[in-house]
Each structure stands twice: as C-alpha cells, then as structure tokens.
Design goal:
The complex is a heterotetramer, with 2 copies of chain A (about 270 residues) and 2 copies of chain B (about 270 residues). Chain A is of the alpha/beta class. In chain A, strands 1-3-4-5-6-7-8 form a 7-stranded mixed β-sheet, with helices on both faces. In chain A, strand 4, helix 4 and strand 5 form a beta-alpha-beta unit. Chain B is of the alpha/beta class. Chain B contains 12 helices and 9 strands. In chain B, a hairpin with a 2-residue loop joins strand 2 and strand 3. The chains are: A alpha/beta (about 270), B alpha/beta (about 270). Chains A and D meet through strand 2, helix 4, helix 5, helix 6 and helix 7 of A and helix 5, helix 6, helix 7, helix 8 and helix 9 of D. Strand 9 of chain B pairs antiparallel with strand 2 of chain C.
Chain lengths: ~270, ~270, ~270, ~270
C-alpha cells in the first residue's frame, strides 16, 4: 500500500493521503470506511494529549507453543510498533473522562488472545474501581486460535468484567467497525449498553465463508453489514465517522449523572 | 378540549386520531436536548412503530419512548400506523431497563390504535411481550411518566402505560377496545360506533373522574395539531413538575405507590 | 346441550356423560378437550375436600352503566351459580398446599373485569403473604369491554401482583386451556414461571377473526393452537388433562424447597 | 481414557464425536428423578438442539440443561446435530434465571460442534445470545456446574460453560475452533487436521493441566458409549460431591470465586 496514495479497501480507488485524512479516512468514491490503526482512532476521538496508556508492555506468551505463532507476533510488533492488538487507557472526550480501548486490525486482525482479553478486563475493572464509563472501539477477526482454549476463555473473562462494571451503575459504549466477528462479537462487543457502528462494517458471529459452506447458498444482499444488523435490532445507532467523537461525548454527558438516586439497588 | 361546550365522545375520538397531531418525534424535537435515538430489541428487530432514546429534559437526563405514527401514507405504512409488533415492546423494555441501570427517569408517549394483530406478531409472542412489560414496569426502579398524546388503544397502549403518573391531552382517548371493535363484537353493527364510543367512557374527562389518570393537559385552541410547539411546551411543564416530585421519593416509596396506584383500580361489591 | 349426552365442541359427536367424565372430558373421537366449569376442574385436580374458597361474594358493579351489562351478569349468576368468572382459594394437590384459581368460561367467556382482576390479585397476594406457590387454570375471551378502562387496568394490577409474588421467591404456574386470548393472555397467563397448556387450545393475543380482517388472508394451519405456541417458544409443556394433577404436584414438589439459600437476594 | 497408553489428540476427537455416546437426555434419564422438560425461549422458538428442565438429583431440586444430539440421521437433522440457534441459548438462559429465582443449582451438559453458522442464526443475533449468556451466567446467584460430555465447540459450548466447576469426561474435547476449521483457516489444507488437533491442545488432560477445568471424569472401559448407565453414575457422583461443597457457600463467596476462576485465565508477560 502506498503511504502517500493509500487504496480504498473496497473499491480500490487511490486517494491522496492528505485528502483522505481530511475525510476521516472515508472513501469519497464508495463511502467505505477504511480500517484504521489504534493511534489514528485515538487522535480522531480523544482530546489532544489526554490519552494515558495502560499495560503497554504486556505481551503474548505462546501458551500452546503453537507453530509459527511466536515469530508472527515478533514480526507484527516490529511493523506496528505495538506489543499487542489492543491499546487501552484513559482519556478525555470533550473534557469528560473515560477509559478507552481501541483494537488495531493490523495486529493479526485484532484477534483476541490472552493479552487482548486481559487488557480489556483490566480497563473495565479500572473503570469500575474509579467510577468511570468505558468505551471500546472494536474491530476483530474473533478468537485467536493460536492461543487455543486460553483465547476462548477471554470471552468469559471480559463478559464478566462488563457485568461488574454495569453492576456498579457504569456504562460500556461499544463502537463496531469493519470487521467485528467471532468471539469478540459474541462477548464484549455485543454487551455495550449503547452499541454504535460505522456504516457497512462486517459484523457477525460466523464468518461469511463458513456460513456459505454450511448452507451451500449465497448470502442475502447486505448480510452481516451494519445496516442489516440495525434492521435486525442488534445496534443502537449507525454513526458517521466524523460524528463519532461528538456522539460519544454526548453519551458520556448523558451518563455523567444519575437523575434518580432513590434506588437502593446501586 | 374547550370546557365551554360538552363535546361528544365520538368527536374526541376523531380529534385523537387527527393525522396532523404531533407525533412522539415532534415532541422530542421540542422538549429534549441532545437527543440520541436508540434502536433495536437486540433479539429480532427494530420496530419503527415505537421510537426511543435518551437526552436531556431541561438538565435532567431522561429516557423517552413512544409510539410513532407517520405524517403521510408512506411513512404510516413504514410505521405501521403506530401499531407495534413484539419487538417494539421489547425495544421499549430494553431502553427502560437501561434507564433503570443508570438512574434515568422514563417518559412514555402513547399514541396507538393497539398492538398489531398479525401472524408474525402472534408467532413472536405479542401477548408475552405486553405481559412482560407490565410485569417489569410495575417495579422498574426509576420514575415513569406516561402521557396519552392521541389514541390509547388497549393492551398496546398499556404496555407503555404502567407509570407513576399518567396524563392525557384533552382531546385524546384511552380505551380497552376501539369503538368500532366494541360495536362490531357486541352489537355486530358498525353503525353503532358512536354509541360504543359513548358507552366506553374513554375520554380524558371520564378517566380523570374514574381516577385512572392523574391529570389532563389542555390542548391549545383548536387542538394540538394547530400548534405543535405550544402543546410541547405544556407537556414539558407538566413533566418537569411531576419529575420534581417523583425524583425526591426514595425507591421503596416510589414502587409502593406505583403498586397501589393500580392496586386500587376496579369496582366491585362484597356484600 | 343435552346433559346426559353432551356434544364435543369441535366434532359435535355426542358422548354419554359417564364415559366422557371417565375420559376427563376429552372427546374420544377427535381428542378435543371440552371446556370445563370451574368446579369440575377443582374436582379433577385438587385433593378431595381441600378447597377453601376466597371472596365468593365479590360481584361486579357495572362501573360504566354499560347497556344490558347488569342484566347479563344477573342472568349468568343464576345459570352458573357463580358470582363471577373466576373461582379462587387454597387447596392441596397430593398433599402440597397452594393457592389455586380457575376461570369459568360459562361466565361471559371468563372475560376479565374488576372482579376477576381483584380476585386473582388477592389470591396472588395471599400466596406472597403466606409463602405459598400459586396455580391459575386459565380460559378467557380477554378483557371485559363492558367495564371499559377498569377492565384494561386489571392487566396491570394482576401483572404487578405476579411480580411481587416472584420477588418473594415464589412461583406462579399457569395452565392455558381453550380459549386463552386477549388481555388475559397479555397479562398473568403468559407470566407463569412454568406455562402448561392443554392440547389444541386456542391461545393468542388478537382473535383469529380480527387478524383475518387485518391481513385479509387465511391463517396458517394450526395457527394460535397450543402445539403452534409450543413450537414458537411460548409454552413450557403440553400436558394431557388426565396427567394435569400429577404434573402440577411434581411442579409443587420441585418448587417446595430452595436447594441454595446463600443468595442475599431473597 | 486408558491411562496406560498415550492417545493421540485426533483419536480423542473421534471418540468425543462417537455417535453412540450418551446424550443429555440419556444422562437425565439415569440421574434425574421427576424430570419435567421445559420448552421455549418465550420470544421466538423452541430450539431442539438444546434441552432443559427441572427435577431432583437425589433429593436436590436442580435445573438441568444441555446440548442435544440425535441418535440417528433423522433425529440429528431435527436436533441440528446439537448446533443451537440464538433461541436455544435464550431458552437455556431463561431456565437458568428461573433456577436463580427459586434457588436451584444449574447443571449444564455440553456437547456441540459449535453454535450454528446460518443466516437465521445471524439475523436473530447468535453473537448477542452467546455474549448475553456469558454476561448473565457470570453472576447468576446459584451454583453452576458444567460438564463436557462430548464436543466442547467454541462459543457455542462456552455459552453453557461459565460455571463454578467445569469437568470433562476423559474422551472429550474443548476447543476454540474445530481441528478442521483450524487447519482450513491457518494452513488452507484440511489434510492437516490431525496436526491442528494436536496443536490446539484440546483434550481433557491438556485442559486440566492448563487449569481450565476442575477435573476429569473417567469413562468406563471402551468409552461412555459402551455403558451409558455406568457413565451416568460416575457423573452423578461428581455432581453430588461438587454440589455439597458449592451449596454451602454464601452467595458473595460463590460469585467472587466464579469471577476469579475466569479472571485468572490467560498467559502473558509484563516485562
């Protein structure tokens, strides 16, 4: 991919990087929302210099000694300058403090292994302990099969952490971007109190190829895309990328106070 | 309703169904700041016949939900004339449970001919959806205020109507069955619709007398459809005044009063 | 209807009453479960002489002065020897105590007015106060339109009473029989912790005629019948009439103790 | 598993999928008295791929739920080979929430290739259904015990597998992906299925070593399929012993331990 003229991931049109950046990395030709690395997301959403990183040094341990896994991780650490597929921390958005996590699709399609699960869990626990809301910008190919059962268990671990956050009366907002699939969709992604999505993102449990193989027929038009999920009741809102910061700020603001405190529940 | 003349029930039925009356989204536009519409029941679908979302009423974060009719034929087809399917009631309940979790009061606008009587609605449990809303709303741990802004049609209205305060606009109706349905079932004669409207005692005035509702919000001269903004302002005033009372109650008191509110409804003898 | 040779409500075959009684009033020809009056149900399910009646004298008051309603009620009180469409009380089933309510379809198709709502609510409250489970044998044409808005409000009142019962850790078991429709289905009928049904009973919210008028087409085969509702996830079990007493006894037995009491919830 | 020889992962995969293994309903027949099967999610359907109900384990009232495979092709088609749709997971959760309300421990039998990957399943929220089960089960206020009785396939298995104790029968597997799927995605070569089975570390022995499960229930000679009743008896013994511990815990301890059970799973460094 040319760094100066990156291609749209859908229609393959090349765009001058400065224009693309101005357009929030949305293709002016086909409207496709280009996949973004974690730091770009942070820049687009968080208040300047407000981001404080958590657990930057946490790394995978290849618990199964899975063929080629260790090498692949090392390689990705070099190319992405990240240690794993999720960046977590705290930040402010229009002055409102929140914990904030972003998955980075360059890192093994941001599949969830032990590190992704642990970092997200710690972030949610930090929110619960410090009375903060939580935001997760999600993209993921699902579970990281190279970590086998440890990967699967991250689904239970992160879901339990969302429950504990909610039980303290605090919200999780999730933003689903292209692609959000597998074990990540089937855990924290679908557990947002409010679930936002970018348009035309692939969102689902099973991958389209697997489904096609199973049922032996083609998918209906728009199947597993954001608009389809919205129509089927799975999403709260589609949000344009350039509105994302502003919508998240409004969500934080609305959830920043409890109007009714008479409840003995919390 | 103009107090100077005694309108017939059948006229009020007509006014309550006036196609130019403000809809839920109209009211939201006037009274809620920072509104975000939220969609879906997270199970099956997003029913356009019920809308809901969050925002600020003055400086109070609220969840606001309501039946949504269309402004024209095309939109009415999409909105199914405000007749919800089970997924509509389940979306409403999902939003109310979110409201409970975050201590937001709930405001419901009711304007529906009734729950949709169709094959898919039955298949997906129309009865269960309504029943479960009644069950859950009876102890939802935040204040609930419901306002009938047009037609309050039967169980499909009540599914948004279990509340701490229930108000009706002056030219609206709230009834166990439509006058047409009543005439057709009871007298097998749709010509008797006017008689049925009268017999059912379905006007705001009747229901206030019966202590089923807590107050009537008067419509501006000529009806709500003549001045949406004015009507919205009157609703906002009522909501703020009711909320200032309700928000000060502790949870046990709130829920006991809500229970007692419905507990005392009914007329019988025990001699 | 001949008292000695009653007709099946479906296939119209006449049966000798003694045989029919022996067959639990199930048509030997077509399997239809004949509608039963409340006292027959009590005899079939409750331990002999265990039934203690509640609120036998509660009567309607015609709150809307609805045309012909008062006369109709008087007439029915004479023919049915009941004061209203539901009989409530306590009883034992195989020695286990429960509150127990039965609707009687002879009384205005057991539609729900103020008395039905009040008697059921009182029965549920009695259960909650005395730590008893509750059973309701249901048949109903829905709301009683002659009582207008008071009828509608019984849906809210009874549903709230089920909630209070459940909040005390006590169950409601409902048995849906032919027909169970309208506002009764859309309140306590569908709120059973376990919902049983007799086979081939009409169960639904809207009446089939109303639906046919609305959609202008015929119903699918078996639409709104028990088997259809079971397939659509709305019922726990279909129970043969002659097994009903035994199944209810088992439900009472299983719910008669809390195996785990560590919960701070109850 | 015979401890005397070291079986290959791929052999255990084959045994775990043996068509004559006892199913959930077989086990229930042997270990539960007064069993009543309960149906439906009360929202959309009754999924035959998951069964559930109530009854007595010895003298303890329990809720028991499990994937259900068929005994022959016809029944397997009806049961969808134990691959549940969202309504299956929602039925399971409904029954678990009932169990919570009435203080009944929950026993789950897991035997599924995975959640069904189909159009309807996606439309009705397969991901949401699984996620919501994980979320709710993590704090369900009664003891939960899960036993893998055959195939523990990915999220579709885990959706019944968040528990206070998790056991595997000796010839069963539990994995994030099937060996076939792994070989096909990773190496685009289904001939490498055996390698994938080995690499995934999916046997009971592996998982016990990883402390993902709490114990292995040995199968009778020749495997569970050889003697259903014997296998059922072994399971019953394990359940009774686990329950006698769990039932004595207060709720806070129970739930904190359950949280910690999953909280500590994962391997990473922080240098």
């Amino acid at each position: 991919m040319s760094k100066l003229f990156p291609k749209c991931g859908k229609c393959k049109t090349s765009h001058f990087i400065a224009f693309l950046k101005h357009a929030h990395y949305v293709c002016s030709k086909c409207g496709y929302h280009l996949r973004l690395d974690a730091l770009t997301r942070i820049k687009m959403i968080c208040d300047k210099k407000s981001f404080q990183f958590f657990d930057e040094n946490m790394k995978s341990r290849d618990p199964l000694h899975f063929p080629n896994y260790e090498d692949r991780i090392k390689e990705l650490m070099e190319t992405t300058k990240l240690n794993e597929a999720v960046v977590t921390g705290t930040c402010k958005i229009k002055g409102l403090t929140t914990t904030f996590g972003v998955m980075d699709p360059r890192f093994m399609m941001a599949s969830m292994g032990s590190v992704v699960g642990e970092k997200i869990t710690r972030m949610l626990e930090y929110s619960a302990d410090n009375h903060l809301p939580a935001i997760l910008i999600i993209s993921s190919g699902g579970a990281r099969m190279q970590e086998g059962i440890f990967s699967l268990m991250q689904m239970a671990k992160t879901s339990a952490a969302v429950k504990r956050l909610n039980d303290k009366g605090l919200p999780l907002f999730t933003v689903l971007t292209d692609p959000t699939t597998g074990g990540v969709t089937a855990s924290f992604a679908m557990l947002g109190d409010v679930i936002l999505a970018e348009s035309d993102a692939l969102i689902g449990f099973a991958g389209p190829r697997v489904i096609a193989q199973t049922i032996g027929q083609n998918m209906p038009h728009g199947f597993q895309r954001s608009e389809f999920l919205l129509a089927h009741g799975m999403l709260d809102m589609l949000v344009e990328r350039r509105q994302m910061r502003s919508v998240l700020a409004t969500l934080l603001k609305i959830h920043s106070m409890r109007a009714y405190t008479g409840s003995a529940e919390v | 309703m103009q107090d100077t003349k005694q309108e017939k029930a059948t006229d009020i039925v007509r006014l309550a169904r006036h196609t130019k009356r403000p809809t839920t989204l109209d009211y939201i536009k006037f009274i809620i700041n920072d509104f975000l519409e939220l969609h879906g029941d997270r199970r099956y679908g997003d029913d356009p016949a019920i809308v809901g979302g969050i925002g600020f009423l003055k400086d109070i974060p609220v969840t606001i939900i309501g039946h949504q009719k269309g402004k024209n034929v095309k939109e009415n087809v999409r909105r199914n004339f405000g007749m919800a399917h089970p997924e509509g009631y389940r979306k409403a309940l999902r939003l109310m449970e979110e409201a409970e979790r975050f201590g937001r009061p709930v405001i419901n606008f009711i304007d529906t001919p009734g729950a949709y009587p169709g094959i898919g609605a039955e298949e997906r449990g129309q009865a269960e959806a309504i029943a479960y809303n009644l069950y859950k709303m009876s102890s939802l741990a935040v204040p609930i205020i419901s306002i009938i802004t047009g037609e309050g049609g039967s169980g499909g209205a009540l599914a948004l109507g279990v509340a701490d305060r229930v108000y009706m606009l002056s030219d609206t109706i709230y009834s166990v069955i439509s006058p047409e349905g009543c005439a057709s079932i009871l007298w097998r004669d749709s010509a008797k619709t006017d008689d049925a409207a009268e017999a059912l005692k379905l006007t705001a005035k009747d229901l206030l007398e019966f202590k089923i509702i807590d107050g009537i919000i008067n419509e501006p001269a000529g009806g709500a459809q003549k001045d949406h903004e004015n009507m919205a302002r009157r609703i906002k005033t009522t909501l703020l005044s009711a909320l200032s009372e309700l928000l000060s109650l502790d949870c046990r008191t709130l829920l006991n009063r809500r229970y007692d509110r419905y507990r005392r409804m009914g007329k019988f003898t025990e001699d």
